[in-house]
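Minutes, methods subgroup
Present: GH (chair), OT, SY

1. OT presented the first of two proteins processed in the latest run. Sequence and structure tokens recorded below as shown on screen.
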Amino acid sequence: MIRETLIHNRIIIFILSGLAYYFAGMIGLELAIPPGFASAVWPASGVALALAILFSPAPVALGTFAASFLLNLQLTSAIYNQLTLSALIIPFFIGSGAALQLLVGWGLFKYFMGRTTASDVGNTIIRFSLVVVPLSCLVSASVGVVTLQLNAVISHDVFVFTWLNWWLGDSIGILLFTPMIIVVFSKEGKFKFIRRMQVVIPTVLIFTSTCMLFFWSIEIRQEKMNAEVEDEAKRYTQELKIKLQLSKSKVQSYQAFFQGSDYISFKEFQQYSKTLLDRDSHLYAVGWVEIIQHSNRDDVVKSLRMQGFPDFEFKTPKDKRMEVLKTKNKYYPLLYIYPYELNKPALGLDLSELPGRLELLKKIEVTGKGRVTKPITLVQERENDKSFVIYLPIWKKYPKDEEIKGFASGVFRASELFGNAINEAEKNNIGISIYDITDITQPDMLIERPVNSHGYIREKIKYIDFQGRRYQITFTPSINFKANDKDWVSWIILICGFIIAALIQAFILMMSGAIEHTNQVVKIRTKQLTQAIDKAESANKAKSMFLANMNHES
């Protein structure tokens, strides 16, 4: 029966200590200075040590491990969405470090301060502050930071800062919360009610004021960083707009080239392209698409064969290969292309046979304005390497009228066109993703550079309208954005506020303990004096009675 009761009590202590550590840890996470991993003040360490001293270290250590594991699993796995091996290893070792620190702290407390839980004498508080706290807090900081570094969560550059921040956060958490919890929850008779209130009220007031000032400082800091990201987003958006306009201007040069001549041969097209594009890596391919009526099909085929392409035919894709196109009323064949060798299979391809391409070309014929395809994957490219094609109309002018005779096309790879801007943004710890949202129900990814989101700084979204398509550009600051620009103001507010609270708490404990001790001494001395007076009066009374009896007998 006694054994069952003991087990039951330990289970209750395990559950309660785990819950207490978890909720205190959630408060500590709110006090973390972004984008740091370690909180500048960790109340959970103080709560855990106090519960171990008041109750039993073993179940409290187990509860601490479980709660710390869950807290850090929540961080490393993006709130349980990515359960990888690393996401389990990191919280396991951090939780183990927290539990081991608790046991070391409890052992040091018992060794240097005895089994009493009262902190009544000045040198007792000094031993607690200068020996128990700093030595025990070495454990969790060392285990946690080494674990983060080995798993590439933090770099060598911030190792010392993170370790110091972790050690200082645990130390302040123990200095501030362990004595207060011991005073509040100790057995009746250990501390009087007035003394408990003298400790709790100033500590809570200073803690609350410091937190309010800290959150105000963090909010100002975040507003500043959000403004910086907004400025960067505007700058990169403008740069991307310029890139798109430059891409259009390249195709416009072909538009002018074809409209300035009644006839251009394949050789002339190649020579012009070589002069214009050999040093331009942005334009992957350029082509000439002519609108051909069926009555002119044979003449066009004959003309291309005479220019050096004996196997030329109008073609359509089928089962990953090309076959001769059947008879139609109107064709949209790709007659010229540069560079030819890289795109040889596409020569003669009827674009109207490609999904969605006829609709696009028809829009150009109706509106007379250029259009851009949705993101496409070229045959020779990887699936995530997207491209797009710009089509501009080529007009055939008559004395009193004009009509579209074909299209100049330019193929652009997103990685080549936007690569420099995106790489520069990535170096500045900003990830850029560009999506074609012309069809809002089916957005198409054009290019994307994912980053580990900062979490505290909002991503920015901009839009670009270009040749009938709408692009959404999302700018996501990474966790390393302004990582070297430490928020020392918030850090100093937090550290100084809680150190002041801990010092005031220690002073109150020392003074109230000294006053209580003096009152006890006065009571003892008063009692001793009263007893001495009573004895003296009794002796005088006995002496008087003795003398009276002697006189009577005389």
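2. SY then presented the second protein from the same run.
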Amino acid sequence: MSPAIPLTELLAAARSVTTTFDLIPEEPVPVADAGALVPLELSQVADRYARHGFAIIQLPPGPFTDKSLLALAESLGLGEPFLPPLYRLGGTVATVSRISAAANEGTVDADHPSFARTVGQELHCDGTLQDIGFIKASVLLCESPAAEGGDTTLFNASAAFARLLMTDAAAATALATPGVLIRQANVNGSTEVNSGPAFTVQDGQLICRYCVSGTDRWAVPADVTEADLWRGVEFMRWASQPISPFFARLRLGEGQAIVFDNTRISHGRSPYSDSKTQHRCLHRSLHLTHPRGVRTHQDQTHADTEPRSTGAARTLGTYPGDAPLGPPPALDPELAAPLRAILNELPMPLTPELIADRRARTTAGTLSDEAIRRGGAFDIEEAAFPGPPGAPDVRVIICRPTATPGPHPVIFNTHGGGMVAGNNRSIELADELDRAEELQLTVVAVEYRLAPEHPDPAPLDDCYAALLGTSENADRLRLDAERIIVSGNSAGGALAAGLALRARDWDGPRLLGQMLQCPMLDDRCDTPSAVQLARAGLWDGASGLAGWTALLGDRRGTDDVSGHTAPARATDLSNLPPAFVDVGSVEALRDECAAYAMRLWRAGGQAELHVWSGAFHSFDHWVPDAAVSQAAKRARISWMRRLLAS
């Protein structure tokens, strides 16, 4: 069993990890002769293997057999494949395994749980009974792909662990403790086990063996707390989801081979199905060395191997700073217990599978007409304004105070919901009505289309169309078009800030102010707080990543994102209406909100910034009676009162 690794050694090794799934080349490395790669071909393979932990190679026309794989492995400098002793128990002597449900039928591999079945395979590292770091490289050669499915899934486990180590050292150390991961054989009648750490350090390099297949299980060694271990396990579970920057999926075509680093990358397979004419068949070999020309992780940190790219050269969703991050700030005492209760009932983080759940919860919390009227304090009018070109009309609800005749100033509300949920009667409307009742304002709340069914720019287009309709029909609706304040929470805050930018840039309505409550402003999700709170709080960094991905798809984190959509991207923040920005200190959005306020000041604008100590995302909605929640509500209404008076 590997010895325990000191934290200082883990940190040093983690800082040298440069593996990234950013800017993975779309085309494989073409080779003219699988058995005789020329220096340029070897260099390309080694470069991709070093940067990404794997490289895909296109062989010349086939046939593609185990001999093709052996020739390629020899040419890559991998030498003879390693045959695990476990396989010899079944009489196997071939050093190249065949992975094919169709081709293995009736052979010695017919009962192998992954070689001879079409089911998916969870993430794992090769070498069930070998110690961590023993098998260095694996090669898969596709003789023929499946008729459907059979994608190879890759998890950048070493980089994910490095991030965890910087944000939750106790959880990361638990995963690096000897005996924490137990792997059990399930072929050839063997039930032998091998236990060890999921991560360790060897020769100064971070080594991974992250496995979650059906025969792998976690154990709690004597010097590890269960809470630390499960935080680490949960973080890695999130980091290996398809929405994560540490996840990649690819489909090998005929004659394509992938060579990957078994000490940095975990891999798996999606289920597949064959047809009468198309049968999936891959050949696999295991090796005890890395490809020729690949340098160590430490060597890769030198300047001559900096990623070559035309865009941002850091991993999306990864804090690029050098200083390690501490643990999340402590919660306010009045908020800690309620947050635990909320998280016990509310599945987190947001994933594509949970969007329906979020929408159902929003619907359940929708305000009725009676709740909005507040005993006659407001009249309600439903209206529709022309939508964006080619889109349906945009519906709004107009809530007018009855105590004064008007025309009234307007709170133009864009609801929250992570870009994927919510409606214009969401529970947060109650807070807008609190302010409107006290200050005698009309609330216009917009119902915009939601992602992912309606990706960017649909939500902002709808909101802007409704803003134009509100302004252009102000006289008829008894509204003061010169005093419109856009206001939103979370995703609604992003839309409110985007409306202020778009109204300025498109010569739209002249807004009086913008109230941005814990707004989502930056799709890159790479601020220190986004990493520090990647799996902490109510709307954590993982949820932000999911929301932005639903809205932007593959454009998230690239240069192809408008500053109107992600206001932190806007290069010019001058000539914007006064802003109120507030956010909790214990939420992933903290740093992008503070940075946005500071940029407004630098541009000569007005901004009032509040960072509520110990508060999580939307804390005042969930725990309205807490002292910090009451302080936040007073600050918002005070700002709005002063703004209207000016």
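Chair's summary of item 2: The mean pLDDT is 90.
Next meeting: continue with the remaining queue.
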